[in-house]
Design brief:
twelve-stranded antiparallel sheet; 14 strands; 226 residues; signal; two-stranded antiparallel ribbon; globular; mainly beta
């Protein structure tokens, strides 16, 4: 899943200044390790809805997500779990863009296979690496690469992605952390979007407590929804 498959519409955020939001500091040492693979497998296997916001007064942007597991299927010849998702972008409460699609993946260990988006673009993952069972703050690694085609004929490429994972400190609590998937995107049609960072806030039991999403542009500016 390219977390917001409205990537070509990111120009609408161009006037916003760089934002971030992570709360205050928390002292003490971090837990020895956080469960990673089980947390990710559980997240994508469960129904849930959530929303993240970006506010630059007087404008407030909200991204609303809905995730719904569906029947098992196949993708590129592999058995797969499936997840239906929708994403709605609102400006001051009014919908201005939407996206969605079906993700295909395996669990235990989690392995992303690809996605078929509602606009008929078709993403195929490769070079998948198994997530660690547990990880400590500061650890990172390769996750997967992918190619997104204009449709499932795979005749024309829309973009390519290199995804890496990282486990980052949550400044508000030493018993929580952010598991992040950092996607470096290269578009066939030139665009200034370079990286999408999608982070799950997890506790030391692997429960997903929150979410934040950042777009990072070629000029170094970023926009964060949390």
């Amino acid at each position: 899943m390219k977390i917001l498959k409205i990537k070509a519409s990111c120009f609408m955020f161009g006037a916003l200044s760089a934002l971030s939001g992570c709360g205050g500091g928390g002292g003490g040492s971090d837990p020895a390790a956080f469960p990673i693979d089980a947390a990710v497998s559980s997240f994508y296997s469960s129904s849930r809805t959530f929303a993240v916001t970006n506010e630059d007064t007087p404008t407030r942007f909200t991204l609303e997500y809905s995730l719904t597991p569906a029947a098992d299927g196949t993708f590129e010849g592999a058995n797969a779990k499936t997840l239906l998702y929708t994403a709605v972008l609102k400006e001051n409460g009014a919908p201005i863009e939407n996206a969605g699609g079906t993700d295909y993946f395996q669990v235990n260990p989690y392995r992303y296979l690809g996605s078929l988006y509602n606009d008929n673009t078709y993403e195929v993952a490769a070079n998948q690496k198994t997530l660690p069972a547990r990880a400590t703050i500061g650890q990172s690694g390769d996750f997967y690469t992918s190619t997104t085609y204009t449709d499932n004929s795979k005749a024309a490429i829309e973009d390519t992605t290199i995804a890496r994972w990282s486990l980052e400190r949550d400044p508000s609590s030493r018993s929580r952390a952010y598991f992040c998937v950092n996607q470096s995107v290269t578009l066939t049609i030139p665009d200034d979007l370079r990286t999408i960072s999608s982070c799950f806030r997890i506790d030391d039991n692997g429960a997903v407590l929150g979410y934040k999403l950042s777009y990072i542009y070629a000029d170094g500016t970023s926009i964060t929804f949390d």
